[in-house]
Amino acid sequence: MSMKKTAKRIIDEDINPHVDQWEEEGIYPAHTVFKKLGSAGLLGVNKPVEYGGMGLDFKFNIALNEELGHINCGAIPMSIAVQTDMATPALARFGSDHLKRTFLEPSVLGDMVACLGVSEPGVGVMLRQTPPLP
After folding, report:
1. Which among 4, 5, 1, 100 has a CA at the least distance from the CA of 53?
2. What is the pLDDT of residues 63-82, one digit of tens each?
C-alpha cells in the first residue's frame, strides 16, 4: 500500500498539475519525471535489488500500473510502461552484469530514459522512403 500511496502522491503533486501545460507546449520532461519515480523506487518494482529495484513480484507492478491510470493523459503512463515493462525486462533477465550495471541500474534509478527498438527482416518502416516531418 505504501508504494501505491507514493505513486499517488507523485502523480497528484508532480505530474497531473502540469499535464495540460506540457500538452499545450508539446513537451514532456521525461528525465525529470523518471528521476522522481526512480528515486521513489517506482521504476524497478519487479527488478533485481542488486540493480536498484525492489525485487517484488509482478503483481506489485500491476498495482503500480493501476495507479498510473490516474495520470490525466495517456502518453505519460505509456512512456513509464515502456521503461518498466518493455525496454528493461529482457535486460533484467538476460543481460550480463556489465549491461545491467551500465543500462538497467540507471534506468531503474531514473537516471536514464530507456528506449526500445524493434526490427524484423523484410518488414517495418522504410526510413529512406518516409517523407520528413514538416
Report:
1. 100
2. 999 999 999 999 999 999 99
Neighbouring C-beta atoms of residue 73, cutoff 10 Å: 14
Q: 10 Å Cβ neighbour count for 90?
A: 10
Length of the chain: 134
pLDDT tens digits for 17-66?
999 999 999 999 999 999 999 999 999 999 999 999 999 999 999 999 99
Give CA–CA dist 73/75, Å, rounded.
6
CB atoms within 10 A of CB 36: 17
For residues 122 and 58, what is the distance between their CA atoms, to the nearest angstrom?
A: 35
